[in-house]
Amino acid sequence: QSDRIPQYIQELCLYVACEAEKNNWKINDPIAIDGIKEWVKSSLVKDITRVESNLNSIATKIGRRNQVIYCLGLCNKYDFSKQDIEILLKSTFSESSKGVALNIAQILADLSSSLHPIITKSPSNNCYSFIDPKFRIVVRWLLFKRKDSEEVLLRDFDNALSLWSKNSRKI
Fold first, then answer.
1. pLDDT tens across 99-150, in order?
2. CA dist., res. 36 & res. 81, Å (int)
3. Rounded distance between C-alpha atoms, residue 53 and residue 65, angstroms
4. For residue 38, with 0-12 CB atoms within 10 Å meaning exposed, 13-18 middle and 19 or more buried, which class applies?
5. Complete DSSP assignment for the chain
6. Which of 70, 72, 134, 139 could be bridged to 47 by S-S, CB 3.0 to 4.6 A?
7. What is the rounded (10 degree) CA torsion for 113, 117, 123, 124?
8. Do the Cβ atoms of 130 and 119 come closer than 8 Å?
9. What is the pLDDT of residue 167?
10. How many CB atoms lie within 10 A of CB 126?
11. Nearest CA-CA partner of 143 in 85, 77, 71
């Protein structure tokens, strides 16, 4: 959940410790989950709004922009290229990307130059990176791909927290 960022790991541990203190310093799964939920609420709310503002504002047939943002969350590289995202998109959304021009470069350029950008383009090469690693955390937390289609959906904040807690073993 902390995207391997030491400061975020430390903050997350502090929230878990605060919850443990309320429980006589005993940590169990529900206490850890409560701490994680509190960290998310306090640390990511403004970042959630920023990511949401970059999603398609209306339902589109394919939702390519949402697919690209979803793939940004799947990408484990800190610096990623158009090709990295295109490979992820073609493997994750194989039906809707088959035989069509994806225009990933334009979507990445739009995401880096929007009113509230979540990625930035490197001046020295053709790579991009998240402006803040919290945006990757938010994308992974809130966006999901429907199993029966290639549509990317947005979970509401409380629903994302409750769904995540059901899968708490994936910390």
1. 888 999 999 999 999 999 999 999 888 899 999 988 998 898 888 888 888 8
2. 31
3. 12
4. middle
5. --TT-HHHHHHHHHHHHHHHHHTTT---HHHHHHHHHHHHHHHHHHHHHHHHHTS-SS--SS-HHHHHHHHHHH---SSEEHHHHHHHHHHHSHHHHTTS---HHHHHHHHHHSSS-SEEE-SSSSEEEESSHHHHHHHHHHEEE-TTSS-EEE--HHHHHHHHHHTGGG-
6. 134
7. -130
8. yes
9. 45
10. 12
11. 71
Amino acid making up residue 6: P
Cα dihedral 133, 64, 147, 80 sign: negative
Q: What are phi and psi of 116, to 5 degrees?
A: -130, 75
User: Cα–Cα distance between 96 and 20 in angstroms, integer?
Assistant: 47
Q: Which of 89, 83, 82 is nearest to 111 (CA)?
A: 82
**Whose structure tokens read 């979507």?**
107
